[in-house]
Write a structure and sequence with these properties.
The complex is a heterodimer of chains A (about 270) and B (about 230). Chain A has 7 helices and 11 strands. Chain A has about 270 residues and is an alpha+beta fold. In chain B, strand 3 and strand 4 form a beta hairpin. Classes of the chains: A alpha+beta (about 270), B mainly beta (about 230). At the A-B interface, helix 2 and strand 9 of A face loops of B.
Amino acid sequence: MIASRILCCAFLTVVLALAQPQTQTNSLGMDFVLVPAGSFTMGMFQPQCPAVGAGDNMTEAQYQECMKLAKAAARAGFKAVIAKPFYIGKYEVTQEQYQKVMGKNPSYHTQSVVGGATDKYPVDSVTWADTQAFLKKLNAMEKGKAYRLPTEVEWEYAARAGTEGETQGGKIQDLAWFMSNAGYLTHPVGQKQPNAWGLYDMLGNVWEWVQDYYDNDILPKGPKGPSKGTAHVLKGGGFQAHAKNIRVVVHAGGPGSVISSGFRVVMEAR
Amino acid sequence: MKRLRLLLSVLLLPCLSSLAADIGKIPDGFTPIFNGKDLTGWHVSRSNHHGTTMMAKVENGELVIGQNPIGEGGILLTNRRYKDFELYLEVKPDWGCDGGIFLRSNEDGNAYQITIDYIPKGSVGAFITEGITALGGTGQRRAPDWQKIWKRDAWNSFRIRMVGVAPKVDIWMNDVQIVNYQDDKNHALGGVEDGPIALQQHYTNPTTPRAVPNGVHRFRNIAIKEVK
């Protein structure tokens, strides 16, 4: 009898877990994707030196010095853990969604700039404070849910979608709008290939604000950002960013280039 | 008499040569934007692709920038924005280091640029863009023989005049005009008509050997004259 009750409880737990839908859409039409629990290595840094003679600009002695400095600067990184699944925006917040919540649209990329409707374009020209005002209003509008920015750990974990290394894997041109293919303009969300977990534009289009304060370091040293600071972290690079900034590891800080700053949100069940 | 002439010429030579080059002095009418003591009025970009943690310090009254950590450069921006102006500065880069002077930049470093690519096959004093649409104007944008004007292992001066929404750009290196260019339109990102001035240190990786270990760019006598 006891055994069957335990079995029944276990079964119910699995059913409930499975019942958590893979995607959800809220009343404003914002789509969310369930990101599974797990872990990854964050903050790993290994500078690479040009070979001796590369560009006629590296002598043997300089190469040896470079290798010494690279070794000293290298970091093994740390294990970042996502304890429970969470929902994150399938797309960057669009101008239409921002307008619905805030009653205004601060974006530079409007019809007069891009030559067509920009409802499905990511909202741009938002400060971190703007994201907080948006979230406050969204939380008031949507009962039963709790919305917030992702932490940097959550953002990078979601962007990686199980990949290791500094990029997302795949061809960057197929995944992201950036300096080499965007024509110096943003583009409607969801036009490039999604990552393995179905998230679009994690790299490129607009930089994305996350919750953490910026620490003035090349990469984070631990899973939690500083408790206070003067700027917040930006991730993912924008339409005007060089390929070097279109990498999941890039740990930038505000204020950023204003016209390329946007965000996506995390949704939690209350 | 002969001895006296020789003595006079030896004594006067340094004075004459410094007068001819006019290096080491901010020209009349310019206001310093670097105080020679600290980085007041300047900040490192936290979102530039060359790097976000570059080395920027003041040493012997000179503004010194370089990579930090190895491989990661960046840009050092003025806190103020400038629209139409003349900029004067003196620069002494280490051989093997790629840098530049950014004009009407944004925080990320999308900007008009004057190269200080002091590397093999590099070009110093060329007017180009960084992360904005390609130039299409008319006039001279680079001096093909910049090496004849440039002084190796010494201070070199730049005077840069940038005026207009579609800017007219004139650049003098060591008092010799090397750029005389009229842009076809405003190429600045988002159509901005002003922006910070920035000093750049390029990043390095195995496919982009644009700096040598511990190499730096030194600047001094950085001053501006706004054109109203």
